[in-house]
Amino acid sequence: MATAIDAAQVTYEAPDLDVMEKFLTAFGMTKAAGSDDQTLYMRGTGTQHHIHVTRKADRQRFGGASIEVASFDDLVELAAKPGSSPVQESTEPGGGHQVSMAMPDGVIIRAIWGREKAEPIADREPIAMNNIRDKNRVNSSVRVSVAPCTIARLGHFVLHVRNHDESMAWLNERFNFLPSDYFVPPGEQGPIVGTFVRLDLGEQLVDHHFMLVLQSDWVGVHHSAFEVTDMDAVMSSHDYLLQEGYSLDVGVGRHMLGSQVFDYWKDPFGFRIEHYTDGDTVDSGYRPTKFNGTASETTQWGNRPPLEFFQ
């Protein structure tokens, strides 16, 4: 199976690229080279050429996600799977090669390799925290403005599917994903209706989850999530987005599964998008658990999502 090494991008369609660019800039992204009046490419401070793509269309919809793999041979292997495209040269800025695949419900997953890396954008250092035992900040004060934060990278995305088991079998046949935690119905021990998956990079630390696959009566994206520098970035950006009149969804709070401090917003076309920081990191030795609570119980503290949050 192919070795996935990074969440490369999420792709959307929307009728107004200027409106989307204004929001994503306020959210903390930067317009990337190659954007034009038909496609908007937005990047973070990291080395992915772009992490969020919007193509101009008459209506809004989710256009799929792209996963970076370790080698060209991974693309060749994926291209041999049923329903895959041949290995193709990418037409997106940064070049490289790709294989396009459709999950059982039709969600498009692209594997990419060889895309040109971007020069990182300088960002401030994370603010050192003074806890009751460790005084990490000495002779230095915290001074943070209410302003857009800086997005570092795409961390994960969440998909709704009609058949969880079929979708997981499809993913596991193609990529080196490992389960991190499972959703089961509230108060029960099964069946599994959601799986958090992570990258398998051996002893290298990876995020608790790279993707969440959820059983649902509809198909599409629940949200895409972008990592920021620290808690002050989450909070100062929260105030800025409120000040600019954007639509808060749920936040700020701390997740149970993955431990991230989160803040969910709605973009101007109704797509849910998340700032997060301070998530768990694990290696290949981590063993999954089962969570059988409600959506509201997925939050340890803070603004709790409504019961219908994952529906």
Automatic annotation (TrEMBL):
Residues 6-114, 153-278 form the VOC domain. InterPro entries: Glyas_Bleomycin-R_OHBP_Dase, Glyas_Fos-R_dOase_dom, VOC_core. It comes from the Bacteria. This is VOC family protein. It comes from Streptomyces laculatispora.
